[in-house]
Amino acid sequence: MEKLLAEFQEATKAGMQGIAAALERFAAGAVDEIRNAKPRAIAANPADEKLQLDEALFDSAPLLAVPKHAAFEPLKEIGHRFLATAEGIFVEVRRPWLHVIQLLSKLPENAPRPPYGLIMPKIELTFGRLGVAIPIIQAFAEEARVAAPDEHAAWIVWNSEAQKLEYKPLKIMNASPGAISFERPELPPHQSLAIDLHSHGRGEAFFSATDDKDDAGEVKIAGVLGGLGADDKPSVSFRLCVLGLTIPLKVPVEAIFKAAEPA
Predict the structure, then answer these.
(1) What does 196-241 look like in DSSP terms, one character per residue?
(2) Spatial contact of 224 and 195, defined as CB atoms under 8 Å apart
(3) Are 227 and 204 spatial neighbours (Cβ–Cβ below 8 Å)?
(4) Would you call 22 helix, strand, or coil by DSSP?
(5) pLDDT score of 42
(6) Other CB atoms closer than 10 Å to residue 95's CB: what's the count?
(7) By CB count within 10 A, which of 7, 61, 73, 150 is most buried?
(8) 244: left (phi over 0), alpha (psi -120 to 50) or beta
(9) How confident is residue 19, by pLDDT bands cut at 50, 70 and 90?
(10) Closest Cα to residue 217, out of 242, 180, 234?
(11) In which domain of life is the source organism classified (predicted)?
């Protein structure tokens, strides 16, 4: 009986080892299958030990060809990717409040053309149009007038649960007529920065070199208000920031600063 029990245990052990080996081969095969199903167009030797680093970078911001015959499928997940077209290279960005496609680099007139399709640039706001935010920007303008001649700052965030824009005051650390610093708040998952506002006190509204540096790499609408003294002429400047690319936005100063009614 003991001999039979030992033979049974030995057979069971061998069977478990076989199952484990089969599972290991299955897992390795599944990884290869997934890798083959999602090829990465990287001009590198597949055996290069550093290729995995490039694959990770590629996956974080892939380059896709725009179809010439099939229907274009827009980016659905939050993130960004690059699009190769017969015209040049575009960037496509998705945020809870924004979908944007913009040309980054246009091919020279007589350059070779890849056999890809074309795509139209677009800026699509989930909340419809920037005018929806005007009442909130007006409220910020009043706060900025009180803070003048020092600069002031605040955010307008998109609440994806409530499907609306919301005003978010900021904790100001230091403010002067020429600079401002604030504590950047950590937003919950259902909120995302949509409009970044700051003022220039009594100075003119414009985007400084410091603003350019602060906005680089961000996806947001940036707005500056200026001329906030009692005897000043108000001014505004707005732009869409897309990972370093900036697109001017037309916002009439009269929409934010109501003209004084005659006596």
Answers:
(1) EEEE-TTSPP---HHHHHHHTT-EEEEEEEE--STTS--EEEEEEE
(2) no
(3) yes
(4) helix
(5) 87
(6) 20
(7) 150
(8) left
(9) low
(10) 242
(11) Bacteria
**Average pLDDT of span 156-175:** 97
- Amino acid, single-letter form, for residue 98: L
Decide: 218 and 184 in contact? Cβ < 8 Å: no
Both tokens of residue 106? 């246009």
Amino acid at 92: E
Query: Could you report the per-residue pLDDT of 107-117, keeping only the tens digit for each?
Result: 998 999 999 99
Q: List the domain boundaries for the chain.
A: 51-125, 130-256
Is residue 257 within 8 Å of residue 232, measured between CB atoms?
no
Sheet of 79-84, strand order: 63-65, 79-84, 88-95, 98-106, 122-125
Q: Render pLDDT for 226-251 as a digit per residue (tens, 0 to 9).
A: 999 988 999 999 999 999 999 999 99
Tokens of 214: 């602060």
CB contact at 8 A, 90 and 61: no
Strand partners, 238: 223, 249
pLDDT tens for residues 74-112?
999 999 999 999 999 999 999 999 999 999 999 998 999
Asked if residue 149 has a cis previous peptide bond (ω within 30° of 0), the answer is: yes
CATH 3.90.70.10 fits 130-256, yes or no: no
Kindly provide the b/e burial profile for residues 11-33, where b requires at least 16 CB atoms within 10 angstroms of the residue's own CB: eeeeeeeeeeeeeeeeeeeeeee
Backbone φ, ψ for residue 241 (5° rounding): -100, 125
- Planar angle of CA 122, 124, 130, nearest 5 degrees: 120
Instruction: Say whether 31 sits in a helix, a strand or coil.
Output: helix
Cα-Cα-Cα-Cα dihedral of 134, 140, 145, 148, to 10°?
-130
